[in-house]
Amino acid sequence: MQDLSGKVAVVTGGANGIGRALARRFASEGMHVVLADLDEVGMRVVEAELSEQGTQVLAVRCDTSQEASVHELAEATLQRFGAAHVLCNNAGVVGKGDPWTGPMSTWEWVVGVNLYGVIHGIRAFLPIMQAQGEGHIVNTASMAGLVALPGAAPYNVTKSAVVALSEGLFIELKAGGSPVRVSALCPGFVKTGLADNQPWLDRHGDEPAPTTDQFRQMIDEFMRDGVEAGIDPAAVADEVVAAIREERFWILTHDDMRQMPVERMMRAAAQENPA
């Protein structure tokens, strides 16, 4: 998809971080933008910013973990713009605390948003793209979907699943001669508020299990430092637009991390234990 001007981009998790950067980047290409998020305040700020620049924007409160909510998003998109050319299944969360002793709602929340949110997005928008004869789906995974992060089991599970789901969908659509393309976005550390996104505390009334052992505390500190030193979300958005134009599946944003999944698979091929 070379010419993006006048086309419609749907971005879940569009109120902050990578989602906000994607919305801005698509707007700069002359696209109409649909923002979807549970953070209505943040979403309205982005909506106002883009509208002032002349972009046609639709903001929809959407819980991507709920199938009905995502189908309502698709219906609202069609009602306003009549099409959906780019879908960024970008909404994502990270659970805090010990996943093995903490509340099960941590797992349910992370799996609901990170994995089922992607599934719901594909099921709602793929038929639209197939019918209109053009489309590109970008699923936000992570380098954690290629190389497991210690101490982040729910996040690892969901991001690995998104990579597998995206790769399978890419092959399936290509084999069937579909006009719809798929990309898997696997960023490393990015300056976002992902680690602080904790609405599940209010939603479920559960408290995460405290992280007490030294190893987990070290991992938490490593993650915080990594995010603080991460790349600008705008750089990620630039990579996404380039991949859409090139019809490229893999979007790896950090050159210095590209060898990590290679080393992992070499260990697997040699039947060596993880390191």
Please describe the structure with a list of short key phrases separated by commas or semicolons.
275 residues, alpha/beta, Rossmann fold, seven-stranded parallel sheet, 9 helices, oxidoreductase activity, acting on the CH-OH group of donors, NAD or NADP as acceptor, oxidoreductase, NAD(P)-bd_dom_sf, SDR_fam
Q: Please bin the fraction of helical residues.
A: 40-55%
Determine the number of helices (DSSP H or I, runs of at least 4 residues).
9
| CATH homology-level superfamily | NAD(P)-binding Rossmann-like Domain
Q: CATH topology, what is it called?
A: Rossmann fold
List SSEs in N-to-C order: EHEHEHEHEHEHHHEH
Principal-axes shape call: globular
Low-confidence stretches: none
CATH architecture: 3-Layer(aba) Sandwich
Radius of gyration: 18 Å
> What portion of the residues fall into strands of 2 or more residues?
5-15%
Number of strands: 7
CATH class call = Alpha Beta
The largest β sheet comes out as:
7 strands, parallel
As for the number of domains, it is: 1
Keywords: Oxidoreductase
InterPro entries: NAD(P)-bd_dom_sf (IPR036291), SDR_fam (IPR002347)
Family: Belongs to the short-chain dehydrogenases/reductases (SDR) family.
GO molecular function: oxidoreductase activity, acting on the CH-OH group of donors, NAD or NADP as acceptor
